[in-house]
Fold this sequence. Notes:
The complex is a heterodimer.
Chain A: H1 8-28, H2 35-43, H3 48-72, H4 84-100, H5 105-114, H6 118-142
Helix pairs in contact in A: 2-3, 5-6
Chain B: H1 2-20, H2 25-32, H3 41-60, H4 82-98, H5 102-108, H6 114-149
Amino acid sequence: MIETAFTPYSAAIGGALIGLGTVLLMWTRGNVLGATGILAGFMNPSSSSDWAWRAAILAGMLTGPLVYLAIAGQMPAVQVPVTVPMMVIGGFLVGIGVTYGSGCTSGHGVCGLARLSRRSIVATLTFMLTTGLTVFVVRHLIGA
Amino acid sequence: MQLIFIYAAGLIFGLGISMSGMGNPAKVINFFDVFGPWDPSLAFVMGGAVIVTFFGYRAVLKQPKPMFEPTFSVPTSKVIDARLVGGSALFGVGWGISGFCPGASIPMLGSGNSSVLIFTASLIAGIFAARWMMAVTQKRKALRNTTAVNPAE
Lengths: 144, 153
């Protein structure tokens, strides 16, 4: 278990930037910014222009931490209180879940909630609940 | 030109993930651990993102069309079914185990951390596995329908 500091300002500013990037994509290309959909379509594009915009936004996302490094003088912290096998299982479950659920935190949790989509509200409430339950089970019942 | 704007959208998003702590599994898991070392920061990330997107979308969607495309293409489905709820529930289990979600892990690949790489590789494997399972169920369903329509075959 790793303790983390409560950081409301950087969290809110970071969140606002996430929103800004999301709005910029709607303004320019006219679609929602769902990380799952963008990634899935990148690996299985319908045309070369479909691939190109996905490659551009993914490249932009990957550059984010480097710009952070230039501004803050250090890479963003990645502290991982999770073993490698659990990370593999977790990633695999996320992949299956977001494909069946048609979205993740960005697609449902940000774009969908902002559009007041009922589907996304249901999806977001569901995954917030199961994430909380899972953390409770892993941390307090299993005691990892 | 369009690709530069889209690249910028990704960059701003990725910078936001980096700043917010959303790409830090310890912080994400602590947000959900209200009985442990609770860290409410994530609520401010979600709040900031949703508020900006809510007002930004309202302004943008008033335009007749986006800058570079003939029409806006926002999801239109209104179906709330077992697939949506079951999939989202499973996603939450994975998010709770790993502390990473797709939108946070993709930018954090740029940080060079090995756990991010392991998560993202498993995520991609999961996406392909789910697509394969969906294709199999669809094929079975189609097969069942043809036999139902044409029982003689």
